Amino acid sequence: MKLYGFWRSLASYRVRVALHLKGIAFEETPINLLSGAQHSDDYRKVNPQAVIPALIDGNGPPIFQSLAILEYLDEVHPSPPLLPKDARARARVRGLAQIVACDAHPLVVPRIRTYLEKDLALDEPARNTWLQHWTAKGLAALEANLAGNPATGRFCQGDNVTLADICIASQVVGAAFFSVDTKPYPTAVRIFGDCMKMDAFAISHPLKQPGAPASH
Amino acid sequence: MKLYGFWRSLASYRVRVALHLKGIAFEETPINLLSGAQHSDDYRKVNPQAVIPALIDGNGPPIFQSLAILEYLDEVHPSPPLLPKDARARARVRGLAQIVACDAHPLVVPRIRTYLEKDLALDEPARNTWLQHWTAKGLAALEANLAGNPATGRFCQGDNVTLADICIASQVVGAAFFSVDTKPYPTAVRIFGDCMKMDAFAISHPLKQPGAPASH
Description:
Largest interface: A-B, 47 and 47 residues
Shape of chain A: globular
Number of strands of chain A: 4
Distance between the termini of chain A: 29 Å
Oligomer: homodimer
Helix content of chain A: 40-55%
Strand order of the largest sheet of chain A: 2-1-3-4
């Protein structure tokens, strides 16, 4: 498979983790978000929304949106599964994943940061406050759902990694990028720690990718 | 089933449509977003994220996040299906749905509008520009994926209603709320028109719900 991603992209991180968890061979083509490469005519032919990630599997058209890609990978490469079997448990996993992928992460992506800077003329402290505020809100929503819930185990839903853990990992990595204090979210942080003990999460980490700085 | 929703909520609209499409009996409890009822202690016991919708099915815990709810409904009440059978087609449908539910709609919800007004002290024209900008961006991303794509039929993916159509309907309704010109998005608008010919979409429309104004 072929992944269009970028070291800095938290959504690309999610897809990279799933590919490694499932042992799927892939090559990654970097689309430099910092230089605006996602807006090039060439990349718009891959994904007309001009965002990453996008995944190519064989001769099919590009697959877009990180959670749609994760579900696709789980359907065509079911082992190990990224969703439990029970419908209610699947709904909880998807709900937790969507707290990150719908309600938290889209507020801190490059196009939003650009709008805050260029269109709203916010100074850097105000932009950082925005990034920290919404990143923390996402973690708080996760923590409120995870802490004390009997369905929570070593991972978000019992003791197997699911879509929810992949999304939480991306959210906690984002918190480090934006210098968010994660102490108020001990369950999310504990799960993140257990994720990072797994090779698929560790080698996929944004700061381990080509082009990444030594620290952020 | 029991739905916690609100007339104005575009995400609640999605769930209402799916319940009606599948012929599932439900009662809706309004959570008044305009008065902040989602932040009450009582509602936080239902959904600690303090957002709607949430769905209760029997004695199980509340199910949260609109797309997770739609997938759950499709799993426990498979007829009529809201996803095609082919994995690539399912990925496209989910990707289109997530353009709305992840990248567009979360930018215009009450908590964002409040932050723009209270924390950033933006005046009403600047806030309206924000709402229109991101609503239009979502429609543009949909249109770029739909127009001229051979997979697009009467609906987003062939001739059967899917999750993607439900999300597009909510996005076009949102465009009307925020006075966004939809002329540049003829495919999305055409699909919306075909959706609205169906009872499930028409009777679920935000402006048809208890408490809604005669127009918006």
